[in-house]
């Protein structure tokens, strides 16, 4: 954002104009979201975030509110645009330690924004705690003070827990990644007049995972097609009593539009599957032979390995055969145990086999696979990107803020998963959807991002009480939501 601001100013929009628009947007949200509030306390910090606070104070007072600004530090040490805006504020200013929380009906947090560089301490930390404890609604300017906008994590112990946040130009990672998203409350994005050229000059670290990102490569069934032209997915089945995971993946690949799906594995497992599946085909194979032949011969367009596979000699052997057959693969679950702390070897297997791979670890599996190779304090976006680069594969780092990262540096963050999607087996469904889309010719990054979005929409369409068994049946509702296409 510093780059965007600088480019906007260089292109002729003054810093004061940007700040006026930013503070004006804050005042607008106050008036709109808290119609009946009259007494507003504005906590203003020493930098430009505080400057936005002074603008909001003036605009709210002009609109008839009672406003008090509580300033961290003294007026004389304000600089630049913030000093200018403080000068234009004619109302009451008190020291931060005297902030009248009991008097206020609404608190505006303009202490620190993008310039926060270290944990809050002393009087700022005390003011943040007092604001949180006051029971008053809090509207944060740009980011809740104390939050690192780049990682979505508080820099120290003290961090504002806001009811709403007004941010400018574009969302920051911290508005979407957790716990930041929860600390922001409702997020309002305001245009403050930064020209498009200024925005384009700063390359975004990541995009929100919305259909606009992958819609153009989403498969459309052709009336001239047949089942194999819609793609064939092979799912490796683990041992009999761990079969549910591979069955969920298989059913979901079909629902995502693959023309045919086959569960492949040893006979005892298939006998269990046979009691459950109808449209999914079954193919008996000795794990020590045949899997690679099957993948090569049967016009298989994508294979899934991991859900319920087990970390056994047989599954390791089958995984090796998968790698040697190439193709598109979704690798999940036990793959991360098999390659525990050996991501270089997994990357080499993917590269040597010429496999187009999507890996879908949750945080625990990610840590198991990567060992200490990725800095754990880095943002979830940066960790997923680092792993994607190391592995030469698309990495889906799962969670309530799932990040999809491509080895080419692109990343997408999902914000559409409901809390109740955290349920046993949901990950197996995600692997299946991704494979179903890969088999229909979608590239890895797009397929993975689309799968994550559909997974979240499917869960939402079903609602609370969802289990992973329900998810494949909810995929059609997610596909309809995509078709109706009102989200961009
Ligand atoms: N042209 C621009 O740059 C614009 C900036 N805007 C606002 O400006 C904000 C960024 O402003 P700044 O870069 O001045 O940064 P901030 O206002 O977030 O804070 C920077 C100030 O806080 C100090 N500081 C950092 N960490 C501290 C800590 N833990 N304890 C005490 N002091 C600390 C810094 O030394 C500096 O004086 C944005 O978040 C946004 O609200 C908007 O007005 C739009 C235009
Ligand atoms: K703030």
TrEMBL record:
- The coiled-coil segments of this chain are none
Q: Which SUPFAM superfamilies is this protein grouped with?
A: Ribokinase-like, YjeF N-terminal domain-like
Outline the extent of the YjeF N-terminal domain: 1-200
- Report whether Lipid metabolism shows up as a keyword of the record: no
Locate the residues binding AMP. 398-402, 427
Tell me which residues make up the YjeF C-terminal domain: 210-482
Cofactor binding, per record: Binds 1 potassium ion per subunit.
State the superkingdom.
Answer: Bacteria
Q: Could you tell me which InterPro entries the record lists for this protein?
A: CARKD, Nnr, Ribokinase-like, YjeF_N_dom, YjeF_N_dom_sf
Q: What is its EC number?
A: 4.2.1.136, 5.1.99.6
Per its record, the protein catalyses: (6S)-NADHX + ADP = AMP + phosphate + NADH + H(+); (6R)-NADHX = (6S)-NADHX; (6S)-NADPHX + ADP = AMP + phosphate + NADPH + H(+); (6R)-NADPHX = (6S)-NADPHX
Say yes or no: keyword Mitochondrion present: no
Q: Which cofactor does it need?
A: Mg(2+); K(+)
One GO MF annotation is: ADP-dependent NAD(P)H-hydrate dehydratase activity
Signal peptide start and end residues: none
Which residues are recorded as binding K(+)? 49, 109, 145
Q: Which UniProt keywords apply?
A: ATP-binding, Isomerase, Lyase, Metal-binding, Multifunctional enzyme, NAD, NADP, Nucleotide-binding, Potassium
Quick one: which residues bind (6S)-NADPHX?
48-52, 113-119, 142, 245, 308, 362, 428
* Sequence intervals crossing the membrane: none
NCBIfam families, alphabetically? yjeF_cterm, yjeF_nterm
The entry's family comment says: Belongs to the NnrE/AIBP family.
- Report the protein's function: Catalyzes the epimerization of the S- and R-forms of NAD(P)HX, a damaged form of NAD(P)H that is a result of enzymatic or heat-dependent hydration. This is a prerequisite for the S-specific NAD(P)H-hydrate dehydratase to allow the repair of both epimers of NAD(P)HX. Bifunctional enzyme that catalyzes the epimerization of the S- and R-forms of NAD(P)HX and the dehydration of the S-form of NAD(P)HX at the expense of ADP, which is converted to AMP. This allows the repair of both epimers of NAD(P)HX, a damaged form of NAD(P)H that is a result of enzymatic or heat-dependent hydration.
- HAMAP family annotated for this entry? NADHX_dehydratase, NADHX_epimerase
User: Subunit composition?
Assistant: Homotetramer.
Q: What is this protein called?
A: Bifunctional NAD(P)H-hydrate repair enzyme
Source organism per entry reads: Hansschlegelia zhihuaiae
Gene expressing this chain: nnrE
